[in-house]
Amino acid sequence: MEKIVMLRHGDGGKHTNLLIRDIFYKHFHNDILVNSLDASIFEVNQERLAFTTDSFVVKPLVFPGGDIGKLAVSGTINDLVTAGARPLYLSCSFIIEEGFDMKLLEKIAASMGETCRKAGVKIITGDTKVVEKGAVDGVFINTSGIGVVQAAYQPKAIQEGDQIIITGGIAQHGTTISVERYGIKVEGNIKSDCGPLNHIFEKLQPYMGSIKLMKDPTRGGLATALNEILEVSGSEIQLLEKAIPIAGEVKSINELLGLDPLYHACEGRMIIVVDKQKAGEILEEVRRCEDCEDAAIIGSFAPTGLSPKVVMETVIGGRRIVGSLEGNMLPRIC
Amino acid sequence: MEKIVMLRHGDGGKHTNLLIRDIFYKHFHNDILVNSLDASIFEVNQERLAFTTDSFVVKPLVFPGGDIGKLAVSGTINDLVTAGARPLYLSCSFIIEEGFDMKLLEKIAASMGETCRKAGVKIITGDTKVVEKGAVDGVFINTSGIGVVQAAYQPKAIQEGDQIIITGGIAQHGTTISVERYGIKVEGNIKSDCGPLNHIFEKLQPYMGSIKLMKDPTRGGLATALNEILEVSGSEIQLLEKAIPIAGEVKSINELLGLDPLYHACEGRMIIVVDKQKAGEILEEVRRCEDCEDAAIIGSFAPTGLSPKVVMETVIGGRRIVGSLEGNMLPRIC
To answer: PurM-like C-terminal domain: from which residue to which, for each copy (chains A, B) (predicted)?
Structure first.
């Protein structure tokens, strides 16, 4: 273990997982925590509820396609969906720097309110802290969320042939933030995909028996999320590069910046693992959802017995092993 | 409304309430939110649950009697208790500054784990963000909490003669932080009262029918908390200064600093409003709880018809109206 916390401990990849395991799991140890992914599930009065939390530190606070408020509401809603839960209630806690522009604060709050109404969830409790100038960079927001579990995904039942759907073009959020941070002049209409995804969850209710898993590829991107799925499924994922939806502009910018879009955060996309027999039908259903017209089947699970890794067939016909995020991507992406 | 956010918007007093009303309630508006106090109550499958959130930004991170971790766990547990709920589960989200000492992080996590075990609650979900040096001052922690509502307090049934109990000496947390921040050399054993209070809640279960309200006097102190109770009860509170438990050292330091202990945060005390007939019995029960030997009845509700204000009979026999916190107390007390 390093002696100090480094930026990479927050990148959502290997180092984050080490920090969580070696410090937080060690001292908070309990069954629910260590068995949970992006949200935890507990039971009250025979009802299964999901509980999740996320702090948002994105920079800049406002970006094409959204702002920290929209992101904070969407991110927590989406984590509940990954637990098979219908999101119901959010909490919201602001840490604000002294001197922060009140109009911008109101704009962020309005954006949160609007995103909540669109998603049909309510912020029912909150907290506000103000710290002296320099003690926080602008505003950080924590949202925690509660939902009612509707679907029992069966990640352990993932088997050969199961198909992997992504609900839209990848890397849009991460690329948008990079463009803003590096101050690159870009022609065209690049914007974050950030948004709540519970409408997809509702639309897919009739298919829940055929859905093995949902996971949103946020920090660490598609590559890291697929590697986390491996840890549960234990079998090889075969990815088809040419099937992965990615906007032309997103691709070009990442080539320019020398960044790999597979590792860029999405904030409004879901990975859905489904039975082979129902994959086509589910894909059609997803494509009918708002902002999901580019949804695609991007890969499948190989026969068991192969070691658990993500192998991508590249556009030029090669094979590339795609690992978890290890290097330094951009900090403060979400 | 001011054009920028000021430190006083975070002091837990009038300005915080204005900010919440004019910005957050406006945009997040829903029945549960606007009717809630420190925690919100919602129903799932005929079970009433409480939900609360708090971000902790205290400076220094470690202080006599506790640290930011103990404070974060205790504060959220105590907010659930004020909603009549038995705390069950917490979330925990860290925002950490790059370069933060890993050993100190582990010390804070260990303190959280220990406080959880003592209180019988579990941290079941979490999040970790790391931001670049200078973007946050050390570490900030959000804890959100869920509990099962056990008691339906009846604040609207508060009536003439109802007694007000405080579970121990006031102003210890706020004074301890002031001493640390101003770097005052103090003889004696001044330390924060910070700690979880659900053991008192459990002990008082047989008396729940006689308890009208519980409220923890954190930011803004006893004075502000009592004024918030007025908003619900609508009748005058008569406070007896000589009955308010306060350690001699705490009193002296505040005289030295020119600060009023009535406005200093407690982080391990509860205000309990009880029926007159049961007040003595409940007080005895409270005094038998850990760290509650100084619990006392400090006042009562006057006949209805008087305007809702807090009036204190001072030690020299005068009458003083005690308002909500309006001025600037120390920021980052919790």
So the answer is: 159-301
Question: What pLDDT, on the 0 to 100 scale, is given for residue B328?
Answer: 67
Residue B27 is assigned to a structural domain of this protein: no
State the complex-level ipTM.
0.96
Q: Please state, in angstroms and rounded to a whole number, the distance separating the CA atoms of residues A144 and A147.
A: 10
Q: Are residues B124 and B220 in the same domain?
A: no
How many angstroms separate the Cα of A241 from the Cα of each of A151, A164, A234, A246, A314?
30, 13, 21, 10, 5
- Residue B63 belongs to a domain with what CATH number? 3.30.1330.10
Residue B93 identity (one-letter amino acid): S
**Omega of the bond prior to B60 within 30 degrees of 0, cis?**
yes
Quick one: average pLDDT of A213-224? 95
**Distance in Å from the first CA to the final CA of chain A:** 25
Domain boundary among B86, B120, B149: B149
Q: Any CB–CB contact under 8 A between A256 and chain B? A: no
A165: in domain: yes
Tokens describing residue A86: 């219908």
Given this model, what pLDDT does residue B330 score? 84
Q: Collect all residues of chain B within an 8 Å Cβ-Cβ radius of residue A49.
A: 44, 49, 146
Query: Does the CB of A146 have a partner CB in chain B at under 8 Å?
Result: yes
Q: Are residues A159 and A145 in the same domain?
A: no
In this predicted model, what pLDDT tens digit does every residue of A226-238 receive, in sequence order?
A: 999 998 888 899 9
* Contact flag B105-A23 (C-beta cutoff 8 Å): yes
Residue B3 included in any domain: no
Instruction: Decide if pLDDT at A155 tops 80.
Output: yes
Torsion of CA A242, A247, A252, A256, to 10 degrees: -100
* Domain-located, residue A329: no
- Quick one: B54 and B144 in the same domain? yes
3-class SS at A217?
A: coil
Whether B68 contacts B23, CB under 8 Å: no
A120-146 burial by CB neighbour count: b if 16+ within 10 A, else e?
Answer: ebbbbbbbbbbbbeebbbbbbbbbbbb
Q: How far is B67 from chain A (nearest CA, A)?
A: 15
Q: What is the CATH number of the domain that holds B272?
A: 3.90.650.10
- Residue B138 belongs to what domain range? 36-149
How far apart (Å, rounded) are the C-alpha atoms in residues A211 and A208?
Answer: 5
Query: Do residues A210 and A277 make contact, with C-beta atoms less than 8 angstroms apart?
Result: yes
Q: Are A291 and A168 in contact (CB under 8 A)?
A: yes
Residue B57 and residue B137 in one domain: yes
A241 and A140 within one domain: no
Q: What is the number of domains present in chain A?
A: 2
Closest to B3 (Cβ–Cβ): which among A19, A51, A102? A102
Tell whether B123 and B183 lie within a shared domain: no
Tell me: do A315 and A175 sit in the same domain: yes
Which segments of chain B have a pLDDT < 50?
Answer: none
Q: Share the mean pLDDT of chain A.
A: 95
Query: Are A53 and B126 in contact (CB < 8 Å)?
Result: yes
φ, ψ for residue A24, nearest 5 deg:
-75, -50
Question: Are B145 and B244 in the same domain?
Answer: no
